[in-house]
Amino acid sequence: MRAWLALKAAGVDFDEVVVDIRRPQRFANLAAVGAFAPSATVPVLVVDEHVIFDSLAIMEYANDVAGGRLLPVDPLHRAEARSIIAWQHGGLSGIARRVCFESAFYPDKRDLCPEEIAECDRLGTYLAACLARSGGPFLFGECSLADFALTPTVIRLTRHQLDWARWPGTEPWSGHVLDHLHVKEWLREADLCPPIWYDSYMLDPERTPSASSAWTAVREPRGQR
Question: Are residues 32 and 97 in the same domain?
């Protein structure tokens, strides 16, 4: 999603090919990707004979194509934005690590536990400080790659009823992120995809979906979104 948003914001005209990485088809499909991308992973962007095979690299490419306008102009602000992007790319130091992005699309969701909410407090406190400095509406004033990088986190935490109002400025910011034209476009398509159930996502036993429910029950190390 992050790479897709960056390319859209940069005005890059690209053809999109969706790769189904659910089992058992994931093995053949990723092997086919490996024929031209050394990592054999998605996302991957092919431009003529050049292959960019990491979402972070694709975002940086999109920024270069856009003349640098997807990152702040000030060198220190730009470095801080890149820090946020790298933090998200590295897993946000384990913040809400048990709440996978795929779970944002489950029809039934569990509550965030106190430990997860406490982990989110570190993120919310930092974002509030960024917004206080910039004045909003986005982390560095204008929408940047930093906001796009955090978009999947905003979606999954918001859909798990995280109270953004606990951190000043983050509630309107999260609203601006979700209302972004390209984010809404991506979600319209993603919400139509059948969700992949992760065994690690534990609902209350009394609410666990039955065999007759609409879940796609598979064991997956990574989702399709």
Answer: no
